[in-house]
Design a protein that fits this description.
Elements: E1 2-8, E2 11-13, E3 40-43, E4 57-60, E5 65-68, H1 69-77, H2 82-93, H3 97-106, H4 113-121, H5 129-141, H6 166-175, H7 180-185, E6 196-207, E7 213-224, E8 229-238, E9 245-252, E10 254-261, E11 266-277, E12 282-291, E13 300-305, E14 309-318, E15 326-332, E16 340-344, E17 352-360, E18 363-370, E19 401-402, E20 405-406
Parallel strand pairs: 1-13, 3-9, 6-14
Antiparallel strand pairs: 1-2, 1-19, 2-13, 4-5, 6-7, 7-12, 8-11, 9-12, 10-11, 13-18, 13-20, 14-17, 15-16, 15-18
Helix pairs in contact: 1-2
Biased composition (Gly residues): 373-401
Protein name: Transcriptional regulator
InterPro entries: Cro/C1-type_HTH (IPR001387)
Amino acid sequence: MSSRTDTDTGTDTGFGPAEAGGRHATTGARRTEAGTHPAQARPTGPHPTDPLPTGAHATAARTGEAITTSALHAAATGADTFPGVLREALNRRGLSLERVSERLRGRGIAISQATLSSWQRGRSQPERARSLRAVEVLEEILELPAGALRSLLGPRRPRGRTTPAGDEGAALQILGEDSVVEKALGARFRHFNQETSSLVVHDVVTIGESGTLSGISTTNVLRAGQAGADRVIFVLSFDDEAAEPVDIRVTCGRLVEATYLKRLKSLVLEIHFGRELAKLDTTVVSYAVDVSPSETPATHYERWSRTNLHEYLQQVFFHPGALPSDCHRYVREKVGAPPRAQRRIPLSDTHNVHVLTSRCKPGVHGVAWEYGQGTGGPARADGTGGTDGTGGTGGTGGTDGTGDRPG
């Protein structure tokens, strides 16, 4: 099993978090997902019993997908952008672009997956007669009110593709298109944690007696790039579907949303700072997530970052009954790329390893380990887990763009 965190200032994948600024109405912090047991979300920062602000995540019970109430209102009234409403509706219905393209083809309208992807990313918009007819059929397929999408189309654009916003483009360079983090955040991915960036990130990963992931805790020092920043979003992704969050504790900040998306094996956390930051102000966010027992031993942990971190400290603590025979650090240029700069790291007599990186460059930073036969640890799992199940949080298109993923 692996995990990664994704955040804009810090993101994780495999099992990991991602951050995004200005997200998520019900009351109290919640962890929701159809078909799973609610995790115990325990906000311990200031005002833990305050109700959530309007616009916090609600759960669409029919699909089990998290969707903001503001997005639901936007879908009904057209009070949003065309790409945003389209992406939220696709997530809510749980339809892939391939399936939507097939449904359109069945109605006699040929629209490719690539075109649909460009529409939902805002890189192009429907303008020709056939495309406009496709939009009307999309409203039926996605169960939106008539005109909910068509009314959001602006004037004709100059021909050619538009360039994504800087922060979104940086995240796409690391995560690739249609990543788990992007799917988990939906329309929010485009503005993921744009108001803040991470300066320092400290991840602590705990491996249990069976060699599986037991928990993750993260401390993130953020700086506001503009006045008014008051929240951050993390996406934590798991490789193993049996590993689900069972307890969430926020010790610095106020937990507002905790939504586990079982289909994506990802946890979305929204944490408020407790105040609005002035430009260049810093704040500290700390949280911990306990994970349910899994059958597959963890073999790695990764965090991705889209921008430079001043410092990144990664620690992995092993149970005395599940000590690895070998540990090494590595870097990937992007999610899914081959590891490079691999180097062995020693296991201390207190059963932990650590990697401290100063001036941490954008990319994916990980620690992997192996269990040799006869060492008293579990049998080695096949592979080290994929890198993209983010969000991290740690990871996951935020200001800074970092995330983590345990594996």
